[in-house]
Amino acid sequence: MDTLEKLAALGEEARYDLCCGACGTDAGRRKDDIGRWVYPAVMPDGKKVALLKVLQTNVCENDCYYCATRRSSDVRRTAFTPDELARAFEELALRGRVQGLFLSSGVAGSPTRSMDRMLATAELVRRKQGFRGYIHLKILPGSSRAHVEQAMLLADRVSVNLEAPGPERLSRIAPDKDFFSGLIQMMRWVHEIRQSTEALRRVSQTTQLVVGAAQESDAEILRTAARLYREFGLSRVYYSAFQPQPGTPLAELPPTPPLREHRLYQCDFLLRQYGFALDDLPFDDAGFLSLCTDPKAAWAMRHPQHFPVEVNRAELEQLLRVPGIGPKSARRVIQARRQGRIRTLRDLRQLGADAERAAPYVLLDGKRPPYQLPLWDHV
Ligand code: SF4
């Protein structure tokens, strides 16, 4: 294969390869005119950039059941040399097609050998080409601490994909991976290196969990996510609804509804930005979230004793429990109260709240605002 064919093949396969590539959903992905796969990404400063998302190789010695490029699948195998991939990236960057690189790889031969090649590519891009933009490097399962450290010296973000919320769940979908020594240990190293090396604090860490492939519950997923945020200071946990790939051992499993993924993201935000604890989340007896009702609204319905909240007096924590009021609008409410009373739903709307959703749960200057019960639940 020539470089263009490899870019098309290994860019395409980065889409399927969960351990090695997926960063959230495929939303917004665009296939450009010559078949390369470019993904939009939002940087921590809010800037949008186009990323070249590609595998160093689709050769892999592992046999993850959800993966289209696992060792037992019948796909055409290929690989970039570091020099070849670095030059291809440089050309795309010079032409303004991409502003960043998301690089992963199958585990070809050993994690050590595969990481060496990825790092050599990143090294060429950073040091030889002098690229100063965004680089995200995947850390392959079973990598060494030295590799983790080197990846952090070259990248803005690194990620170890956990895929499942615990060892038993992981063994059902990725029997070659070891949950603790192959994955958690590397996340711990990233955290330790960030803590101990001032210059590397800027490097963020993320992970991804596949939703619905291992029969896990939402409670298991969110318990693990909460622990990762707490113990390893992750910037984000991404949830990826399982989509069966033809020809894989999980091909007959039903796809996970995108709404389940959405509910997990909503709860993730409640944990990180709204002051909710894991015990506050409205799981059913089997540990699942309702697909019909937004989790914050579900919590409010289960806790009528906390409402209505007087918008003109409530603490930030109370405002954040009101459906329709988010962190930004809650802060604006508190600021606006210094200038005068908030008396109407219009006032609340002007502060960025979803006033119609908030109406059943608030008092405005001692009065219940008029509202109509919605015909449909908000998603
Ligand atoms: S490690 Fe697993 S997910 Fe990654 S390429 Fe290999 S089989 Fe696919």
Protein traits:
38% helix; binds iron/sulfur cluster; globular; 2 domains; alpha/beta; two-stranded parallel ribbon; DNA polymerase, domain 1; TIM Barrel; 379 residues; eight-stranded mixed beta sheet
Quick description:
Helix content is 38%, strand content 12%. The protein has helices spanning 3-16, 82-94, 111-128, 145-154, 167-173, 179-196, 218-232, 258-273, 295-302, 316-319, 327-337, 345-350, 355-358, and strands at residues 30-31, 37-42, 48-55, 100-104, 134-138, 157-159, 204-211, 236-241, 309-310, 362-363. Bound molecules: iron/sulfur cluster.
Descriptive notes:
- This protein has 379 residues and is an alpha/beta fold.
- The chain has two domains: 278 residues, TIM Barrel; 69 residues, DNA polymerase, domain 1.
- It is 38% helix and 12% strand.
- The protein is built from 13 helices and ten strands.
- The strands form two sheets. The chain has an eight-stranded mixed sheet. A two-stranded parallel ribbon has the order 9-10.
- Helix 3 links the parallel strand 4 and strand 5.
- Helix 2 packs parallel to helix 3, helix 3 packs parallel to helix 4 and helix 7 runs parallel beside helix 8.
- The two termini are 46 Å apart.
- Bound molecules: iron/sulfur cluster.
Instruction: Give the uncertain stretches in residue-range form.
Output: 17-28
- Helical run tally: 13
Share of residues in strands: 5-15%
Q: What is the CATH architecture assignment of the largest domain?
A: Alpha-Beta Barrel
Could you name the CATH homologous superfamily of the largest domain? Aldolase class I
Global outline: globular
